[in-house]
Amino acid sequence: MASASPGDKEKVTSKLPAHLRTRLKVRAAERGLDIQDAIAHALERWAHVGTQPTVDTSGAPPFSTWLPIGAFADFKAACGTRGVSFIQGLSQAVELWLAEHPSPQEERMTHPKRRIMANQKGGVGKTALSAGVGQAYAEGSEFDGPGLRVLLVDFDPQGHLTTQLGVEPLGLDDDSLVKHMTGEGRGDLKALIAPIEDERFGDRLDLLPACADGFVLDVKLSTTRVRESALERALEPIEGDYDVIVVDCPPSLGLAMDAAIFYGRRRPEEKPGDSGVVIPVQAEDSSADAFTLLTGQIEDLRQDMRLDVDYLGLVVNMYDARRGYIATSSLKSWEEIGDPEVIAVVPDRKEQREAVRSKLGLLVYDPSCDQSAAMRQIARALS
């Protein structure tokens, strides 16, 4: 609702979730902006970008501000075009503005943020999540992305991430990540990296391909000195080239997983949530069993090695409420855990499967589909 006022502004009344209002107020103050100007910019920006993730606005209290004459009319027209309420549109606009205007108090990282995609159970979508989130981080500003330098690490010897992105796995006799982890590397690890080329990513998205020698990694690590830090030792020489490193883990609970969890631990100079473990699950019972096993392994490492390992969140993948009570009740159970919290529910759609068949990243194959929007939401939630 808007009402005219003297001058060149009008008072606008809507609703906005309290947590968004607080973050907006703090962020605007940090950047030396009037909150009215921040809102005006947010609404204008939102009207010109693609589909944004739905925001939970339940219980949102009233919110008022002043906008330039005509700005609210343009915003209402954009809401009508997208088929969303004014409250939902305003909330999405504020979320987008916050994501694009980070706190200036954040110190620039001297090392990359590390996202460890892990679950002992296969088929829960670790690879799809790794690829999608990595692409979302690397999308350039012309596509409304953050334009970060991203390395995808295919740590699963099955090599699904590698083949999904149209890259050939490394041969058994080739140099590989595994060989560098076990002290058998023959050259520069950087030479193994394959660029993922597309205009959406510029030169910012790279892949460290898989090699079948990963099937014997646990055996080799058993005789490796300080084996938990083997992955970190291998990747450390190239960390400075990237803002984010995403590790697609194998579906196992062996020594390789220990090395991946150790790599994602919170380093002394990091803040909570800078790096950690993301757990993709499905809305069914076997995922709950696998989740218990994985968190047990993480807790053992935490205690045995006195590590700080942050849970960055759960992603309920391939969700379809039409599957009935098992799906809906399982989703409720995941949401009730609370820590780690569910940061996204990714719908089960054909576009992901089609992208895999086409050997294209999802955000290249169909950048406007619901699953692509979910990947961007996850990337923002993990920022």
From TrEMBL:
UniProt xrefs under Pfam families: AAA_31
InterPro entries: AAA_dom (IPR025669), Arc_rbn_hlx_hlx (IPR013321), DNA_Partitioning_ATPase (IPR050678), P-loop_NTPase (IPR027417), Ribbon_hlx_hlx (IPR010985)
GO biological process: regulation of DNA-templated transcription
Domain AAA: 117-306
Top-level taxon: Bacteria
Protein name: Chromosome partitioning protein
